[in-house]
Structure formats: structure tokens, C-alpha cells
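queue> pop job 88
queue> type: inverse folding (structure -> sequence)
queue> payload:
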């Protein structure tokens, strides 16, 4: 099973590498995304309710949560943001530790979308772990498994399966990869 996963990922990464090389030959510069949580762009969070605890270093947004920073958008039923331990007096200089999203999770990052029932974003590693019927979309192409680990900085990921659900991928030719209005 690991061989199938590795072969699938190898195919996806080779196709991506070829596209980057072609773009470089044509003079296009690869787009880099800012580190999520580190960008100087504001973070905007919308929700039905907010609960927080300075002692626990956490904030919980509940109901129809939309969290946006730059081109990155996270949508979920609830979102718990945990900060690293800092002195209580240093509230304005808190550093993000992790974000835990639960319920109908959708994460948009550039042209990619990851979906599942829960996701945990680890700030220092710039790593997103999606579980609960996780699916990773790139245009019309998609891969699903039991667990997806996506590294935002390197634009790499690992999709795992198990005995009950193997990794499955649908990959379209480049001219068919882009979403069309009928797909929405």
C-alpha cells in the first residue's frame, strides 16, 4: 500500500515539477505564499460566537467560522486557536501555536483546497493535518485517503490510506484540470 502511495505522490510531484520547469523556461516566476500566521497581512475571523481564556492561552470561534489571511481561507463549524505560553502582560505579542478546526472543514491555499471533518494547523512547522474523509483538490484533480498531511512552505504532502480505505486519486490532463463553471 505504501508503494502505491509513493508512486501516486511521485507522479503528482513529477507533474508539478515539470510545470514549474516549463513556467521557468517561459519566464514565469513560481508564486510563493506567505507563512500562514506570520504574514504582515491581517487575520480576519468571522463567527457566530467567540469564547476565550487568557489563562488557557486559547480562543474558540463557534458557528459558521471563516478565517482569512491573504489568499488563505479556512472555513469550519468551530476553530480553536492556541497561543504559545507567554507572560500575561504580553497579550499583544502572543505567538500562534496551533489552530484546530472541526466540522465541515475547508482550507483554501492558492489553487489548492483541502476538505475533511477536522484539521489541525501547526504554526512552527507550517503543517496542516486533515482527517475525517480528507480530500486534497488541485483544480479538478483530487486525492483522498484516511489522513492528509500538507506542508504549506514546501507545497508537499503525504496522503495515507489503510486496509479499509486505500488512497485514491483522479488526475486530469492539464487542459482539463482547471475548474469550469459547470463544476461549481
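queue> result:
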Amino acid at each position: 500500500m505504501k508503494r502505491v502511495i509513493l508512486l501516486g505522490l511521485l507522479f503528482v510531484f513529477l507533474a508539478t515539477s515539470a510545470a514549474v520547469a516549463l513556467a521557468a523556461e517561459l519566464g514565469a516566476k513560481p508564486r510563493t505564499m506567505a507563512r500562514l500566521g506570520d504574514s504582515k497581512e491581517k487575520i480576519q475571523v468571522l463567527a457566530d460566537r467567540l469564547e476565550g481564556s487568557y489563562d488557557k492561552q486559547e480562543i474558540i470561534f463557534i458557528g459558521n467560522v471563516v478565517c482569512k489571511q491573504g489568499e488563505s481561507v479556512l472555513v469550519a463549524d468551530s476553530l480553536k486557536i492556541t497561543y504559545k505560553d507567554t507572560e500575561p502582560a504580553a497579550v499583544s505579542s502572543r505567538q500562534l501555536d496551533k489552530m484546530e478546526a472541526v466540522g465541515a472543514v475547508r482550507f483554501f491555499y492558492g489553487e489548492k483546497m483541502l476538505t475533511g471533518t477536522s484539521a489541525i494547523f501547526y504554526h512552527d512547522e507550517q503543517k496542516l493535518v486533515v482527517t475525517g474523509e480528507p480530500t486534497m483538490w488541485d483544480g479538478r484533480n483530487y486525492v483522498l485517503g484516511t489522513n492528509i498531511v500538507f506542508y504549506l512552505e514546501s507545497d508537499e504532502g503525504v496522503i495515507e490510506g489503510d486496509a479499509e480505505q486505500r488512497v485514491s486519486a483522479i488526475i486530469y490532463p492539464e487542459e482539463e484540470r482547471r475548474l469550469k463553471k459547470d463544476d461549481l
